[in-house]
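Annex B.
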Amino acid sequence: MTIPAETGGAVVVDELKKADVGRCAELEKTMFAGDSPWPAAAFRAELNAPYNRYFAAREALGAPPIGYAGISILGPNDDHECEIHTIAVAPTHRGRGIGRLLLDEMLAVADRLDAPVFLEVRVDNDPAIALYESVGFAKSGVRKGYYQPSGADAFTMIRPSQASGTTPEDPDE
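Ribosomal-protein-alanine acetyltransferase: predicted structure tokens.
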């Protein structure tokens, strides 16, 4: 998937590769310094897990990532659910629709599986919350002290399966 040049330069989304983990770890240190940024080893472990899909946003094919996102596919084959692990865009590239492009790639994975999607987001991250709500996520709870070491709270958000319109916790299901 590509964002056209008129939005500030073409951006391509493809698979995150092991060669990208160093750059992702650098971005983590910049963006999440107060909340245990993932080291390169964490990204390698995520990429090695067969149930994860990770994407990179790049200014050109083969260029270093300017953003990344990851989703897990969980549960039995006939009853999947998905969990977004991370979505991040370099501060220098925000406001260009890159986060939405990465989110769309992850939601496409869930939609192919007819799976609901879960995530956590800092309660003070208004731009991310607005993005998630714009694609059908709803707040379902608060995790106190979720982000460490800052102790920031997180909203748990859920986007229902797009086919059924319900989540596993839906009492009417």
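DSSP finds four helices and eight strands in the chain. Residues 2-159 form a domain with the Aminopeptidase fold (CATH 3.40.630.30). Further annotation is deferred to the next reporting cycle.
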